[in-house]
Amino acid sequence: MGNGLNEQSPEGFIPDNGFSVSSQSEEVRQARYQVGQQVHDVLQGTESLGSSSSATSYAYQVNLLEHLIAYLRKFQEGLQQVAGNYAKKLENLRNEGMMLEPYNRLQYEMDVTRRQIYNLVQHIEEEDIPAVKKALAHCEKMRDQR
Fold first, then answer.
1. For 42-48, which contacts have Cβ atoms below 8 Å and span 24 or more sequence positions?
2. 128 touches 35 (CB < 8 A)
3. pLDDT, tens digit, for every residue of 5-63?
4. CA quadruple 76, 130, 4, 7: dihedral sign
5. Cα 132 from chain centroid?
6. Contact 127, 119 (CB under 8 A)
7. Helix, coil or strand: residue 136
8. What's this model's pTM, rounded to 2 decimal places?
9. Number of other residues whose CB lies within 10 A of the CB of residue 120
10. Torsion region of 15: left, alpha or beta (phi above 0 gives left; psi -120 to 50 gives alpha)
């Protein structure tokens, strides 16, 4: 595509958020991979639909894409909840007597992770969902033309 994304891997559908892969938590890397894989699979499926596809096939694709949008919305909510829980857990440790120096160090490190989570939520909102909606509009148009 020429947009700096590596389309050979599912993660390629999620652009670099400015953090090195090694600094990302395993959960963030896994989430990026899963979302990228789902977007990749759906987009590949809609691109491969030829003119011989029946209206039922397009109706089915519409259904799949609507479910993907709903999944992405729930996924965003889950990520936001994880980020909040992350902050609460550290604050609870401080309230239970964690020393200030290690608390501040961990606070800094966890802020980086929370920003990565926030960036992922934003990317899903600004890139993935619009891409799925575009594919959805195409399938709806093709379905309605039949």
1. 42/68, 42/132, 42/135, 43/13, 43/131, 43/135, 46/135, 46/138, 46/139
2. yes
3. 333 444 444 444 444 445 556 777 777 777 777 766 666 655 554 444 455 688 899 99
4. positive
5. 12
6. no
7. helix
8. 0.62
9. 23
10. beta
